[in-house]
Design goal:
TIM Barrel, 55% helix, 11 helices
């Protein structure tokens, strides 16, 4: 399973990239707005920092506007992927982008039927928001399971990108189910590394080794 960082902060991307675990980046308007800098300059910087896909969201509500933005953003860097909403206009744009050889990430997916439509439209990625599904009292990971089954039934090429990840267990379950990608904030990525028994083990090894060094002296 590929791991993407969900952020608009270039320092976070530099940090995570140095760990050697990041395959791509997802952004959204809220994350970009936090950075209070030039949109294009920030996207260009992010695209330079990572080799993998960088999702950039189109904000126009209509097909024509989405396509204008898609063509513009895709021209900024070869690894830009256009995020489109799971609406009729968004899926129309996804199909047109497929013809134009522009990769797309269909976002704000909350049902298996929506994911089916995204795959039929030719999306490169579909982003089910598991955390937000959980917030409404449903089972976000059950949604991932349903989408995986449907895509396997019909051999769709669309990659399942698990989004709105709230804790490490979402990552574990996504990997167990066979999702293609999981995107997460830096905080969650850090939590994947940590386990109290690892810390205890390191502490014990260092203490024992220090005792051995004292004997040698």
């Amino acid at each position: 399973m590929k791991l993407f960082l969900d952020t608009g902060n270039s320092d976070e991307i530099r940090t995570a990239s140095a760990w050697g675990q990041i395959d791509g980046v997802t952004t959204n308007p809220s994350l970009i707005a936090k950075e209070r800098t030039s949109f294009k300059e920030l996207i260009l910087e992010i695209c330079h920092l990572v080799e993998g896909p960088v999702s950039v969201e189109a904000l126009a509500p209509d097909f024509e506007g989405m396509m204008r933005e898609a063509r513009e953003y895709a021209g900024w860097a070869s690894n830009v992927v256009i995020k489109l909403p799971l609406t009729i206009e968004g899926l129309k744009a996804a199909r047109a982008c497929k013809v134009a050889e522009i990769r797309t990430n269909i976002t704000l997916c909350f049902s298996a039927n929506q994911a089916l439509l995204a795959a039929r439209a030719g999306a490169s990625f579909v982003s089910p928001f598991v955390g937000r599904v959980d917030d409404e009292g449903w089972d976000g990971m059950k949604l991932i399971e349903e989408i995986i089954q449907i895509y396997a039934n019909y051999d769709f090429d669309t990659e399942i990108l698990v989004a709105s990840v709230r804790h490490p267990l979402h990552v574990t379950e996504a990997a167990k189910l066979g999702a293609d990608v999981c995107t997460m904030p830096l905080k969650i990525l850090k939590q994947l590394y940590h386990h109290p028994l690892t810390d205890v083990g390191i502490e014990k090894f260092m203490k024992d080794w220090e005792g051995q060094r004292q004997l040698v002296r």
